[in-house]
Automatic annotation (TrEMBL):
This is PKD repeat-containing protein. It comes from Ohtaekwangia koreensis. InterPro entries: Ig-like_fold, PKD/Chitinase_dom, PKD_dom, PKD_dom_sf. It comes from the Bacteria. Residues 241-289 form the PKD domain.
């Protein structure tokens, strides 16, 4: 700036005045320049929380958006680290629940600002509870809950088909389940924004319903005295048992499935009292034991000719009550006491033979086969025995057999044909049981031909 100094005609010192003005303008310009270079501090920051979880340990990342500052001082109350002088302090961890403050002080040579925000961290939620089934798991079931949750402040319970069905609170009352099956117990725990849940399942068995079945032993399935049977316990929901009978002898009155013995004919009652620690129920059933006839009857038994031994079978066991074929296990052969041999489909040559000599008639030998005496032809045996079809049909006990002297003779073992129908054949087993075979018909079917018979034999 150039200043020209002149002196006025009226005596004003223009040169001094101009100097003063120039100095004033210079000072103003310098001040204006200084004001333009000052930058204010604008403080701003935000944070993001890891996994969006405000539960301990909570980890936050600071985003510093401050402008105009040259230096920074962070204070993280309860955080790790507790302080920082970096512009971007990185990840801060809060391990304790509660309210925490984050303070940033930022400054430059010309300005200083600060900002504080609050952050609330909650304890971590770990839902847990135990289930105690009182007494047993048979319906109705009472369940006691023990809450073992860590870090929860709010609790809601759901009991599937339970009573009550829902509950809000830390410690629910005892719960009752009536319906059998699986039931879910659900716990929902809250702690501020943190929510977690746990599900457990209990199984409820059906309620008490007593029942049993009287199953005679194999040898006693004709229900004749003496009779031994198993008391098959079909009770649902029972744990303790008490058996009683009006006449039978029970092997053990407190076991789940005892046996029972009746020595005489009659009508008897059997009672089962079942309990499970919650309730007791009883059920009674009757059994009729028939008088002992001493006789076992088998009807409509097919016995094939020798070529049908593999398919129909030519052997019979009165103790097993079944036909034994060529393809059956060899272990069954020792029980065979009747062996039939039919030569061909014309039935011109037929006879019953002792199992210990079947190899004489095209069959494989039976090791240690039983010895059975037969009278194939009563009309030829000259043995003084008479037994008719009518005698067979009317025989309801073994009395007609007791006096018979049945033994094998050459004449009695003679073969027979299909001319006489029905035909009566007598036999006596190795254990001295006497019996009668009634041949009811001859069935002509080529290699698969067979006879149809009924058998009556003394019991052991």
């Amino acid at each position: 700036m150039v200043c020209y100094m002149k002196k006025n005609l009226i005596g004003i010192d223009w040169s001094r005045l101009l100097v003063q003005v120039c100095i004033t303008m210079i000072v103003f310009c310098l001040y204006a320049c200084f004001q333009e270079e000052t930058v204010p501090v604008t403080i701003d920051f935000t944070y993001t929380i890891g996994n969006e979880s405000y539960t301990t340990p909570a980890r936050i990342t600071i985003a510093n958006n401050t402008t105009g500052a040259e230096k920074y001082s962070w204070t993280f109350e309860g955080g790790q680290p507790a302080t920082s002088s970096l512009r971007d302090p990185g990840i801060i961890t809060f391990t304790e629940a509660g309210a925490h403050t984050i303070t940033l002080e930022a400054w430059s040579e010309d300005d200083r600002q600060s900002k504080t925000i609050s952050l609330t961290v909650y304890n971590g939620v770990t839902p847990d509870f135990s289930v105690e089934i009182l007494t047993n798991n048979i319906a109705p079931v009472t369940v006691r809950i023990t809450n073992k949750t860590i870090g929860g402040t709010g609790f809601r319970w759901v009991f599937e088909q339970g009573n009550p069905a829902e509950y809000t609170g830390e410690n629910p009352p005892d719960i009752q389940f009536v319906e059998p099956g699986d039931h879910k117990i659900i716990l929902i725990v809250e702690n501020g924004p943190a929510v977690d849940s746990l599900v457990q399942t209990i199984s409820v068995s059906p309620a008490l319903s007593p029942d049993f079945e009287i199953i005679p032993d194999f040898e006693d399935d004709d229900y004749e005295a003496p009779l031994r049977a198993v008391l098959a316990n079909n009770t649902v929901g029972g744990l303790q048992w008490q058996w009683s009978s009006s006449g039978g002898q029970i092997s053990n009155t407190t076991v789940q499935q005892p046996s029972i013995y009746f020595s005489k004919a009659g009508t008897y009652s059997i009672t089962l009292q079942a309990s499970n620690g919650k309730e007791t129920m009883t059920i009674t059933k009757d059994i009729v034991v028939k008088p002992n006839t001493g006789l076992r009857t088998f009807t409509d038994i097919k016995l094939g000719i020798n070529t049908a031994h593999a398919s129909i079978g030519s052997f019979y066991s009165t103790s097993l009550r079944r036909v034994v074929t060529k393809n059956d296990p060899d272990s069954l052969l020792k029980y065979v006491d009747i062996a039939y041999f039919g030569l061909n489909a014309t039935f011109t040559f037929n006879k019953f033979t002792s199992p210990d000599s079947v190899e004489e008639y095209t069959f494989d030998p039976i090791p240690q086969g039983q010895i059975t005496h037969f009278i194939n032809s009563l009309d030829k045996c000259a043995c003084g025995i008479s037994f008719s079809e009518s005698d067979f049909d009317q025989m309801t006990t073994d009395a007609p057999l007791q006096a018979l002297n049945i033994t094998s003779t050459a004449k009695g073992l003679q073969p027979f044909d299909d001319v006489q129908v029905p035909r009566i054949v007598l036999f006596k087993t190795q254990d001295n049981r006497k019996g009668v075979i009634k041949i009811k018909s001859f069935h002509y079917d080529g290699l698969q031909s067979y006879i149809l018979v009924d058998i009556k034999v003394q019991k052991k």
